[in-house]
Amino acid sequence: MNVVDRFLQGVITSSAAETQALARMLAEHLPLDVVIALHGDLGAGKTTFIQGLARGWDIAEPVTSPTFNLFTLYQGSRQLIHLDAYRLSSGADLDSLMIEDFMISPWCLAVEWPERIANALPVDAWHLFLEITETEEHSIRLQR
Q1: What CATH number should be reported for the domain holding residue 121?
Q2: I need a labelling partner for 36 at 20 to 30 A (CA). Which of 15, 78, 91, 124 fits?
Q3: Residue 2 exposure: Cα atoms within 13 Å on the Cβ side
Q4: What does the alpha-carbon distance between residue 117 and residue 121 come to, in Å, rounded to a whole number?
Q5: CB-count exposure of residue 81 (10 Å: 0-12, 13-18, 19+)
Q6: How many domains does the chain divide into?
Q7: Which residues on neighbouring strands pair with residue 82, listed in sequence order?
Q8: pTM score, two decimals?
Q9: Sheet arrangement for strand 79-84
């Protein structure tokens, strides 16, 4: 079973390193110029997952949550745009950031708190649902 199928069925991780390793593997299988919407509560592992994607694309700089900057650009074998939409209230707020002006193909726009700008996301976005289980492990499920 390939890594995409594993995520479609749902995976469980028990450490940040394991979450990052799986994200790194998924990075190889993502289409060019993709939007990934990461759904989950605070502490569910959204930024940790994005850190793994970054390593999969040879991004060496530290990846942190861009809460106060709203978005951060990282360049590796693919450009990663990490957006924290928590403080946005609409698609118009997203448009005002003019992120598309910074996108250099191949890119990935990884959005934390995507429900804040749901109407602005493309229909072909990949949605990842991250949760903390009762046993304190992390569950990650992909929906396309």
Answers
A1: 3.40.50.300
A2: 15
A3: 6
A4: 7
A5: buried
A6: 1
A7: 72, 110
A8: 0.91
A9: 11-13, 138-143, 126-132, 34-39, 107-112, 79-84, 71-75
